[in-house]
Amino acid sequence: MRGRSFVSATTVLVLAGATGCSGSSGSQDPPVPAPPMRLVAYDGCDALLDGLRRATADKVGPYGLTDGPPMLALPEGDTALRKGPQSAEAPDGAQGSPPQHSTTNSHEAAADEPDLVKTDGRRIVTLAGGELHVIDPATRKVAHTLDIPGPRGLGPDGEGQMLLSGDRVLVMTQRSMMIPFERPPAPGMEGSSKPVLPDEPVRPTPTTRLTLVDISGAPKVVGTMTTEAGYMDARQSGSTVRVVMQSRPRIDFPTRDGRSDGGRGEDEAVEANRAAVMKAPLDAWLPSFQVDGGNGGAAKKYRPPCDQVSRPASYAGSSMLSVLTFDLAQGLGDPQAIAVTAEGSTVYGNGKSLYVTGTPPQPYIPMPRRSSAKPPEQRTDVYKFDVGGKGRPRYVASGSVKGDLLNQYSMSEHDGNLRLATTTSRFDPGNRSSQSSVYVLAQNGARLDEVGRVDGLGKGERIYSVRFIGPAAYVVTFRQVDPLYVLDLADPRRPRRTGELKIPGYSAYLHPVGDGRLLGVGQDADETGRRLGLQVSLFDVRSGPRRLDAYRLPEANAAAEFEPHAFLYWPATGLTVIPATGARSGGGEALVLKVEGDEVRRMGTVTHPKDDGYGRSIQRSLIVGDTLWTISDAGARATDAATLKASGWLPFG
């Protein structure tokens, strides 16, 4: 769920081999103006409907809309090097202050991200088995359990995700759109190779549910919201939560299996589908959000008002990207939705600004012309919203850059400028013309204009990870040679490459640990690139990047390689906890390391009791006071953070 990012389960960052380079400058080409990516409002509902119909008809093929549902997203999280790892405690002297505790490993400290586990030091709240469990860390007991109604989702967080604000927990669950089963063929048609679809079109059921729970005492549901829109991601600042949704047209196409009922050809099928689009009502595009405030009143249905829907100036999209706003202290009510008729893929926020990116839609091209058609230029469109207040987000600017983003870490706002790292041709394994770039965009009225860039990173490779830290950037590309590039972005108009590191193996995740050092979690590898097992490396990036130390666990891998929320670093002691699995462990355990000076040393492991082989893999870890808590679907274990002596096991269910 993250940007969330749209990636395979083995997203990795590679650091390989040791060379240095200095003084490498950025592109010599002058910055080019961004395309006209400002958003424009529609002149009323009639204009909105006409624009949506025309944009959708342009994309329709013989099978209906061919873009399909969005990919599943993996959540991400981290913290900037200059800010150090996240921790939280109440103000000094506050009566009843909770013990010092860790918080979710989010990209930006001012924008909390949804996760499986949350804590405020007094309570640990986690999702497992479709239930919300509230743990009292002082008594080491599960204080309360509440069944969470709604769908069980797919993806890395099938149990859902949640956010915590005071005594309120917002739980987000999602499932994929309903797919109709093929009904049995008619008599005499048993040998037909064509699937027989239902006579009546199947309408999708609500796919996303937000459940607001009050945990001031025994947990109780105090509000719900359901929608057919797909959940993308969310960010929280204080009690204000912004939820980003993506929806696609809900149109009953007459040619669901590539042919019309009259046996027409492809061209006629396209025309029939386009005719259905031109007759569809506005509600086929505008998502609805049904809210039950939990006060005993009737549920209310909300849609984005026509005057709150915009489109990019250069094109009109058929999908709808919606941003909802909730104040958890006030409960669920009008989500104050705003919408953009565009695709969405990646979300990045820092508390003041919210960025959503997507790719421009492509028109349908008939089969005879596809092989000769020029491939569309890879571009990423960026929409910036002001979310500094508590009300509706305010659109402020848009821009566009060449290439594709890996995930939300490919973006960072610094001193008012947005930095992005992209790769061209990243999805074509056989294409060695790919290369990566870092762009710096500055806001100019309603546009995000390019003011500087560095090109030519990892030619023939693609980006595996990006880290922006203050005025510096670290970009890792990989195919067979594994360089980590260091970039100086202090002058946004003249960014330059200042260093490069190559060593065997790679790091899929980098975490700042203070004093100009980064901890990398990934895989060891031989000279052929064959992976050998988990590798945790400590790097010095203050000048020319170099590796200081490494710890290896053969035949193992770590969840943090693709899910940063699974990683814990506690700055007070250097404690580092990494859930790991492998052939030797036979299941999941938490590897506990300690970073001291220029060394990484192993303290031990934490395991959960064996059951049927499922549910005991440790997913998250956190610190409350002097106790290390590890969480799995089976339960929670309390362990002394200094000695790793177990002090309690709390089974779920």
From TrEMBL:
Pfam families found in the cross-reference section: Beta_propel
Residue spans of biased composition, Polar residues class: 97-107
Region Disordered, annotated ranges: 59-115, 181-207, 359-378
Entries under PROSITE patterns matching the protein: PROKAR_LIPOPROTEIN
Source taxon at top rank: Bacteria
Official protein name in the record: Beta propeller domain-containing protein
